[in-house]
């Protein structure tokens, strides 16, 4: 029995979603780190911590999407 064409399309879209999630993690990490370097003091460190948390969450979702694909 062959795999339906719709299932193949959904798997490809899931892989694309995982790649977008990895790209988003990199983008958020770079932008927030750059902004946190411009902001002095405690608030800059807070922005860097937020960047790390968002990046970790986006990478986790990317791995979940890859497992689903």
Quaternary structure of the protein:
single chain
Name the shape in a single word: rod-shaped
Give the number of domains. Answer: 1
Q: In what range is the share of β-strand residues? A: under 5%
Overall helicity: over 70%
Q: Structural class, from helix and strand content?
A: mainly alpha
What's the total helix number?
2
The largest pleated sheet is described as: none
> What is the succession of H and E elements?
HH
- Rg (C-alpha, Å): 17 Å
Please outline the helices and strands.
Layout: H1 5-38, H2 42-68
Helix pairs in contact: 1-2
Give an overview of the whole structure.
- By secondary structure, this protein is an all-alpha fold.
- It is built from 2 helices and no strands.
- The protein has one domain.
- The chain has helices at 5-38, 42-68.
- The protein starts with a helix and ends with a helix.
Task: Please describe the structure with a list of short key phrases separated by commas or semicolons.
single chain, 69 residues, 0% strand, mainly alpha
Summarize the model shown.
The protein has 2 helices and no strands. The protein is an all-alpha fold and 69 residues long. The model has no long low-confidence stretch (mean pLDDT 87).
């Amino acid at each position: 029995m062959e795999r339906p064409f719709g299932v193949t399309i959904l798997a490809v879209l899931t892989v694309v979603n995982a790649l977008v999630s990895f790209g988003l993690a990199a983008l958020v990490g770079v932008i927030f780190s750059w902004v946190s370097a411009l902001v002095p003091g405690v608030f800059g460190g807070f922005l860097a911590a937020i960047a790390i948390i968002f990046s970790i969450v986006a990478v986790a979702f990317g791995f979940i999407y890859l497992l689903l694909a």
